[in-house]
Amino acid sequence: ATPMSVMVGVGKAAEAGVLIRNGEALQTASKITTMILDKTGTITEGEPKVTDVLLTKNYSRKEVLMLAASLEAGSEHPLAMAIVDSAKAQGIDTKKVDGFRSIAGKGVQASCEGKALLFGNEKLMKDKGIVIEQYIEKAQEFAQEAKTPMYFAINNTLAAIISVADPIKSDSIAAIARLQKNGIRIVMLTGDNRLTAQAIAQKVGIKEFVAEVMPEDKANKVAELQEEGEIVGMTGDGINDAPALAHANVGFAIGTGTDVAIESADITLMRGSLHGLADAIAVSKATLANIK
Ligand code: ADP
Ligand code: MG
């Protein structure tokens, strides 16, 4: 494309809230054959809320929430915000914790008032030898309702399963359908568990998804699809998505997402809506058509 037509295209896209950082990305966008979509914060709002607190030991709901929120106060994960907000809404004050540690893709740990706390997914509990077998089925029920269940252990014993739900953005279904109409293959990637991922994918009409992806493996998935000959677009909002955004043929960041994601991407969707993807592709097509 000529520099002039690219400039016009960049301006048109900006009107739709799509910020294009480089002209090359604009030209590649119309050639995308596969679009990878992150789940949390990309397809969904990224603002999960606590829906269920299932107590599994003789701790009160209040004590469980106090300890869980004290632990999560040290985490920046959207799931952590849900726990902290829920405690706050119920007037529960958090306490200081020691030895806070975040275990990427799995959860968090610390100690509080002499109690060892562990909060996260099935993988984390298995790594730490916490017995959860009796409750896996219950967690799976939550997951099938598109909720994310997390296990909370106090002193190495399961004390609760806390579930959160993250609403799907109101226009994600329509925006994904638009991409599919353009013949684009859609793959959803998430660190969340398989059942929750499946429930969300089904709701938004996505057939292909990879769940329980460790943060470092998102970029590997991009590379894998590229090796299959796909021109890969990647859309994400999190720190975890940054390497994949940089690796993709075109990286799209959600404007409400983390700075790291925005800096790693070629294009930013300022309105946070996935309609920006089909808008960018349409502008890209028009730009290329202009110079023929
Ligand atoms: P994603 O952002 O795609 O959900 P992550 O890799 O950040 O993926 O997290 C994967 C899983 O690890 C979460 O679904 C959750 O079960 C667990 N996890 C991560 N961070 C936390 C946290 N701060 N508290 C509890 N669980 C967590
Ligand atoms: Mg995300």
From TrEMBL:
Coiled coil: none annotated. Keywords: ATP-binding, Cell membrane, Copper, Copper transport, Ion transport, Membrane, Metal-binding, Nucleotide-binding, Phosphoprotein, Translocase, Transmembrane, Transmembrane helix, Transport. One of its GO terms (biological process) is copper ion export. Its main location: membrane. It comes from the Bacteria. One of its GO terms (cellular component) is plasma membrane. It is found in: Cell membrane. One of its GO terms (molecular function) is ATP hydrolysis activity. Belongs to the cation transport ATPase (P-type) (TC 3.A.3) family. Type IB subfamily. This is Copper-exporting P-type ATPase. It comes from Brumicola blandensis. The chain holds residues 386 to 677 of 737 of the full protein.
